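Worked Example 4.2. Read the sequence first, then its structure tokens.
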Amino acid sequence: LAEKMHEFVPIARTIIGLKNLKIITFGPRPQDFFACNAPIKGLYELGVEIEENSELDLLVSYKEHAGDERIPAVCADMAAEMGEGSYYPELNERMAQFELTLLDWAEAHKGSKKYVAFADKCWPAFPSQFGFEPCYVNSRLASRGIPVSCEVDIYGALSEYIGMCVSGDTVTLLDINNSVPQYIYDEDIKGKYDYKLTDTFMGFHCGNTPECKLCDSRAVKYQLIQHRLLEPQGSEPDFTRGTLEGDIAASPITFYRLQCDSEGVLRSYIAQGEVLDVPTRSFGGIGVFAIPEMGRFYRHVLIQKRYPTTGRWPSLTLASICMRCSSSWAWRTSPITSPRACPIPRRIPGTKHDCPTPREILGTKQQYWTNLLLIEGKRTNHIKFRLHY
């Protein structure tokens, strides 16, 4: 009984935490990113409060914090965290001012709620007006249990918060950015890890991953793409500095996102895998990820089910707990659970790919319940647990 109670603690912590959460946003949600522009109806169903503000509100508050007496102490903390040679000393004061702005806003605006997460617009206007990129500050708040998602990704911030509640650790929010180049697979993965090329991919974001989740070579740098787009050609980086960059440290991971679809229905996906100890040879906060049968998961879950390809990544294997949390939210309106398992949602024309029986899957492919599991909560009929391999 004590073991069962211990297993229930992170579930209870997550559900109670959501009831006490307020998400604060700055800036309009991007039109072309469904991940960021999804209906917010699901937040109200979860009991999560939301406060939407303009970037101008944030800029005004930031300017009011100029000369704050707490800034030197924050600068010293940043310098101690990063170490000599791994940050821009002249940039720390601006970033410290911004960090205090967010912390003060959270305290002043959380109202009856106990916890806060942010979803902020970070480009293209932000760097030129504030004088830096907010990524490093975002990573510092995330390491303290205050998720800050980029691009006003409300459900990204929510998923980060859920990951923190479940794991008791900090998490990061990354895009499934690109496939692993063949030469990297041949040199560093093939023969060393039991993964196919299609099981691997690059997880990337500009630089919001907490310092504690990166390799020792991490440093505050500049956003390469925005430097090309926003600053004069051939110039040294100026206001595009402020990203925390480095390879993500090797560890087991759970890939999870809770998202509201275009019909206002809360859905989530879960997959388990690991960050490989493989140099990325790239920029940003980035890692080489591997999930068994990721190619099929990407096709039949993320693409076919129209999920955003942005998820949160706790450095622990927590698929079963995430599954139980997500199903408890669906239970709010779905009193019947109907498990089904099928390797391919639709039969491929011209083939004879039949679905195995549940006994065959559970008897010989048990590991896939924790590797590739899609949870899809349907308010109008029942919850379906689908297995893809």
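Now turn to a second chain, presented in exactly the same format:
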Amino acid sequence: GMVLPEGSKQEKAFIRLIATFVTSLKSSCRSLKDVLKQTDEADDRRSEFVVKNIFRPVYERYAEALRSSGQIDFTDAILQATELCRATHPVSSAQPKSIKSKRPIVSVSRWLVCRLDSSNVIRLK
């Protein structure tokens, strides 16, 4: 297999690519299974190969490292904060738009106490 030189432009580009894919996957609320099903349905063998053999192993290790250390990443924090706001302050579709946003999303900070460490991972306190 190919090994990217540590600290090289190629390694940094690869890390950015993986981070972008993780963020896109999570923010679209899709799973790896969904993506693989889509590549299969589109008969896109190249994408299927990349997802199965490059992205999935990295993503699974990343997700396990977060789980085992009790951490979430920035995308998870945003998604969880959004869900918490929806759950604790449901918005009726019958209300006019001007009334709907009485409580700003920032109010979630009362419930979610976290800190951003140097690796951009949020650790819940």
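Notes for the reader: The first strand starts at residue 71 and ends at 73. The helical segments are 9-27, 32-41, 45-69, 74-88, 97-100.
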